[in-house]
Automatic annotation (TrEMBL):
A GO molecular-function annotation: transferase activity
Enzyme class: transferase
Active-site residues annotated for this sequence: D22, N70 (proton acceptor)
SUPFAM superfamilies: Undecaprenyl diphosphate synthase
InterPro entries: UPP_synth-like, UPP_synth-like_CS, UPP_synth-like_sf
Reactions it catalyzes: 8 isopentenyl diphosphate + (2E,6E)-farnesyl diphosphate = di-trans,octa-cis-undecaprenyl diphosphate + 8 diphosphate
Cofactor remark: Binds 2 magnesium ions per subunit.
Positions with a binding annotation for Mg(2+): D22, E209
Keyword set includes Secreted: no
Protein name: Ditrans,polycis-undecaprenyl-diphosphate synthase ((2E,6E)-farnesyl-diphosphate specific)
Organism: Stenotrophomonas nematodicola
One of the Pfam families matching this protein, by short name: Prenyltransf
């Protein structure tokens, strides 16, 4: 699924990177500009991030674009975000398709207007067979909402007699949450200085490495992203095992 890195590296590359893109509004306020200007600047940071991940061979990138809670923001800001979203889809999908990026959306898309839902569907259909990278955009998404939807699906299967309650385990629930066909995120990044995951991919982030930065999203660039990857490469991911067990497994894997 992933393409080969364009530059040699000894550091492990995360298969899946998930990002909360925080700080657009504060970036604009610092410059005494409307918040929508910050969102426009943030769109350029998205393009830089996609470029970087494609170059490094990251197989999947998931971006938190609009949370289920963001509907509570001032209506003028929500309207401006929807227009930006529409414009970005019209402008960027052709280029993403040319570069082999598969685009998908997770979240309650029925809350969006018909024009935006149509653009989402067209983007997904056009790029469905691409394999260079999967770009998942979380829009009107919440982690609790995601788990509740999966639980409703399983409950419906039990009620219909297709499933017994005792058959429900972690693997089955994992198969019903968003991004079930992708590896779980290896690296989570949040910009803007807050150190919480804010209802993003709650099930999927169970063993993800977390990395936070004070850099505001419009200022996020390849240098900052490389810092995150360097920090990730320096960590030991044990998944409940001991360091000695991890070392033994690495030896077994590397032995011909």
């Amino acid at each position: 699924m992933s393409q080969a890195p364009t530059t040699p590296t000894l550091a492990p590359i995360p298969r899946h990177v998930a990002i909360i893109m925080d700080g657009n509004g504060r970036w604009a306020q610092k410059r005494r500009r409307p918040r929508v200007i910050g969102h426009r600047a943030g769109a350029r940071a998205v393009n830089r991030t996609i470029d970087f991940c494609l170059e490094r061979g990251v197989a999947a990138l998931t971006l938190f674009a609009f949370s289920s809670e963001n509907w509570g923001r001032p209506s003028e800001e929500v309207d401006a975000l929807m227009k930006l979203f529409l414009n970005a889809l019209d402008r960027e999908v052709d280029e993403l398709h040319r570069r082999g990026v598969r685009v998908r959306f997770i979240g309650e898309r029925e809350r969006f207007g018909a024009a935006l839902v149509s653009r989402m569907q067209l983007a997904e259909q056009r790029t469905a067979d691409n394999r260079a990278m999967t770009l998942s955009i979380a829009a009107s998404y919440g982690g609790r909402q995601d788990i509740a939807r999966a639980a409703r699906e399983l409950a419906a299967d039990v009620a219909a007699g297709r499933l017994l309650p005792e058959q429900i385990d972690e693997a089955m629930l994992s198969s019903r949450v968003a991004l079930a066909d992708l590896p779980p995120p290896d690296l989570f990044i949040r910009t803007g200085g807050d150190t919480r995951i804010s209802n993003f991919l709650l099930w999927q982030l169970a063993y993800t490495e977390l990395w936070f930065t004070d850099v505001l999203w419009p200022e996020f660039d390849a240098a900052v992203l490389q810092q995150a990857l360097d920090a990730y490469a320096a960590r030991e991911r044990r998944f409940g095992l001991t360091s000695a067990q991890i070392a033994a497994l690495a030896t077994e894997t590397s032995t011909p």
